[in-house]
Design goal:
Layout: H1 2-14, E1 31-32, H2 33-44, H3 48-59, E2 71-72, H4 84-87, H5 104-113, H6 118-142, H7 156-159, H8 168-172, H9 186-189, H10 198-213, H11 221-224, E3 229-230, H12 232-251, H13 255-272, E4 276-277, E5 282-283, E6 285-287, E7 292-294, H14 311-327, H15 354-366, H16 370-387, E8 392-393, E9 400-401, H17 407-417
Antiparallel strand pairs: 1-2, 3-6, 4-5, 6-7, 8-9
Bound molecules: (2R)-2,3-dihydroxypropanoic acid.
């Protein structure tokens, strides 16, 4: 265990650029939103000050409307596509124009709870709370304009699960007319068989061009997007962050923030119920454009357990994971191996991701599903021992996929060992 911890710490150091950490050298040369927040949790075991700085840096680039962008382009690097010239968000430091799973509220509370320097933690968390609250408010304002209680993503990249089967049908309706020619860079750093397809990239870029044409005005983007999907996993992350933000705000004497966060939480948890499917035994995504549930048994519906869903729902997810555990060597596959679309190597269409394992295990633990949680943690450590700190892994045989020496994988391992 010590050798694994040391190796993980070495990867965090290697990818540290001073005030932010890159996900991995080459493939992802900038700061990514949810990577950074989860990375900070790992860093907190080694250097708390550095962990707070990781999140501070991200929020230094929060937009005036409250959004926190999914990429901050701190420095020039031609090795990534799409770069600032494609996004054209006209920020002082260039950023992308979409967001990512809002794990910051959870991360800040987790770091606060493990602090050995309470004064610093009070000061750093206290300063972050209003910024995180503004981001959450932005979500409910800009990505839930009808006030349903749940937010939509308007680009697959926002989910973090870029090429999930969940998006296939909705994404088919996104055209590719007018997409300017481009050269991908990801396939030069990673095996193309592990990455999204060219057809998907054309649609990713179509949406970027569409939003850019609307000057990244978030009062317009949601309604203008041909892609609006409500992801239970994404919403669970947001709701968990609301809950953690509320508790922290109580501790730090910021009652207005606590009350607002709890209001979001109560409405969101009630609305989550509309995403439940008895037939699939898990939550499903909602295609907001059509108003129908997407019959796709992915990890998004299992990640719902990261929020305080009802006990019987968490128990059902535990059962579903036990069944999945008989189909693969390593939990949790990002898609059901029995589904026709399952691809054990291709990014979010089958592989295991340690960050999702971490959040699912945490949620199950909180819900009293300790046995399944323990299996997920054990499988995660086994993957590291077999295949090193990869970006993701084949759930059938543990083949390491995507980028190597990956920051958030290392950060999660530090948490698993703690
Ligand atoms: C990528 O480039 O693959 C990222 O996931 C988009 O943020």
């Amino acid at each position: 265990a010590n050798a694994i911890f040391d190796h993980a710490a070495e990867i965090l150091r290697e990818n540290d650029r001073g005030t932010y950490t890159v996900p991995t050298h080459g493939l992802y040369p900038f700061q990514w939103n949810w990577d950074s927040c989860l990375t900070a949790i790992g860093q907190a075991h080694i250097n708390e000050d550095r962990a707070w700085t990781e999140i501070d840096t991200l929020f230094d680039h929060q937009w005036d409307d409250g959004m926190v962008p999914h990429i901050v382009f701190h420095q020039h690097d031609d090795g990534y596509f799409p770069g600032p010239d494609v996004w054209q968000t006209h920020r002082p430091t260039p950023t992308s124009g979409i967001t990512q799973p809002p794990v910051a509220g959870f991360a800040v509370r987790r770091i606060f709870d493990m602090t050995k320097d309470r004064d610093m933690a009070r000061a750093r968390a206290g300063a972050l709370l209003p910024k995180i609250a503004a981001w959450h408010d932005w979500f409910f304002r800009s990505r839930d304009p009808q006030g349903t209680g749940l937010v939509a993503i308007i680009h697959p990249w926002e989910s973090g699960r870029d090429n999930s089967v969940d998006w296939d049908a909705a994404f088919e309706r996104v055209p590719t007319t007018g997409v300017l020619p481009f050269v991908r860079r990801d396939t030069q750093h990673a095996n193309p068989d592990h990455r999204p397809t060219q057809a998907q990239y054309e649609r990713y870029i179509y949406l970027v061009q569409l939003f850019r044409g609307l000057n990244w005005d978030n009062t317009k983007l949601h309604d203008a997007s041909p892609f609006q999907v409500v992801d239970p996993g994404f919403n669970a992350i947001l709701l968990r962050s609301c809950a953690d933000l509320a508790d922290l705000a109580d501790t730090l004497d910021q009652p207005g923030i606590a009350a607002q966060a709890r209001a979001h939480l109560a409405r969101g948890l009630a609305a989550m119920e509309t995403l439940w499917s008895d037939a699939q035994g898990q939550y499903l995504c909602l295609d907001r454009t059509l108003g129908t549930l997407i019959q796709s048994p992915s990890i998004g519906g299992l990640l719902a357990t990261f929020a305080a869903i009802p006990q019987h729902r968490a128990a059902a997810i535990g059962t579903r994971l036990t069944i999945l555990g008989e189909k693969v060597t390593y939990l949790v596959p990002s898609h059901d191996p029995d589904a026709a679309e399952f691809d054990s190597l291709r990014y979010w269409r089958g592989p295991v991701w340690l960050i999702v394992n971490y959040m699912i295990a945490d949620g199950l633990q909180q819900a009293g599903q300790g046995d399944v949680a323990a299996r997920i943690v054990a499988d995660s450590i086994a993957l590291i021992e077999k295949s090193g700190f990869a970006e993701y892994y084949d759930p059938t045989d543990g083949t390491p996929c995507g980028g190597g020496r990956f920051t958030w994988t290392a950060a999660m391992v530090i948490e698993f060992l703690a």
